[in-house]
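Notebook entry, structure prediction.
Reason for the run: the old model in the group folder had no record of what sequence produced it. Starting over properly, with the input documented here first.
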Amino acid sequence: MLERSPLIQNRYDKVDAIRKKNINPYVNRFAPTHNSQEILDNAEHFISTEQKVVIAGRILTVRSFGKAAFFHILDGKGKIQAFVKSGMIPDEEFALFKEFIDSGDIVGVEGVVFRTKTGEVTVLAQRLHLLTKSVRPLPEKWHGLRDTDTRYRQRYVDLIVNEDVHKTFEMRSKIMSSCRRYLDGRGYMEVETPMMHPLYGGAFARPFLTYHNTLDIQLYLRIAPELYLKRLLVGGFEKVYEINRNFRNEGISVHHNPEFTMLELYTAFWDYTDTAALLEDMLKAIAKDILGMTKIIYQGDEIDLNPPDGWKRMTILEAIRAALGLSLRWDEPPDDIRVKIGHISGLDAAGLKDLDSVELILKLFEQKVEPTLIHPTFIMGYPRVKSPLAKTKPDDPLVAERFELFIGRLEVANAYSELNDPAEQLQRFQEQARRRAAGDAEAMCVDEDYVRALEYGMPPASGLGVGMDRLVMLFTDCCSIRDVILFPTLRPEGGRPAKTENEKPEIN
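New structure, fully documented this time:
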């Protein structure tokens, strides 16, 4: 239930009093002519010409001196100071300001621009309009909004009081736009594929389940758009991409949110080496576009996206050998691997007990090698058994033509040469089905329609998935994915209510 403190009640009382004066505290429309940044960038022009400006925004601070006051207005481009004085605006507007206007209120100001004695660019008010009365006070000026849980729940307040947060999401928008410009300029077509799937596939993940009443069918929120995008390759499109949401019913961490944004693209007649070259060029281009340089600082490390020798390339087994001095093989007996890695500190020996050879090596890589991958590195040589949609390397039947890109200790992208043999794809799906039957909740389903599409013939192709939230983390130096998602998934306020026995969620 919303709290109604004495301070909030006082502001509601002001709303009632304003209405009694026949003033609307929530106006329908207002038309600013300029924003704060335009005025600050062209201050001398506005001052010398005495051109009238009309601005609108939220009052942040008020310094009152009896019959005059300074206050800062925050609009969509920044903040600017305004000055209001008795006798320089209509008496009823000054009385309204003195009696009823508080920090947090949204106002419109008409006036001219001048500089104060301290040199600050300021709008001298000739008219003052109350546009929206705020009844809930902003966080205290000097302390702001620091509690992270409150910041994520009340992002609207976070954006008001924390300028850096506002800039982060402006940067996010620029990254998305830059990515689209890059791909559009290279002949890729942006498409939209379904968010609700009758079968889930394209990744190893637990899905979210929903239900369609009219069709009387169970549907899944998509975990990946991959299988639909590759159907478009079958249909004759040769370069397609989609930037949109995926949903995975997994844990929440600084690197994971159940709802996240992915770029997926597919290119006919390419293999994964072509896609690696595209990805390297694309991220350099985005950095130059939005930062003007290819060097970024992430969590204290300077990372050059354009090193002289290009991005590193190594297999998982090579990376383990380089970082830990261990020589391992995918077909090595698991007990032998456990002996080799038993001396490594920080590994949970009990958690490794029931893993097979592939799972042991991947767990070792994840825990002990990934944290060392600061500079852009393509990790290749992933096991075929963990890549059911990828082609096998011709010279190594245990390994897929696949890479993952790591930057700043983050897995940023995943790509491979796409399997287009329908018989082999069906066999791979059936292998996944057996894993599901054995209890692997993240194994893929058998998608017969996708196999049917492959039977018509899909050209050789390569696909790429880029975690856009993690890319934004890199470019904005944010350590948590929740800092780059406007409204991250959170536990309900007050904790999760207890369920009664046999209670089932209602699905609409």
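Summary: Residues 163-184 form the longest helix (22 residues).
The old model has been moved to the deprecated folder.
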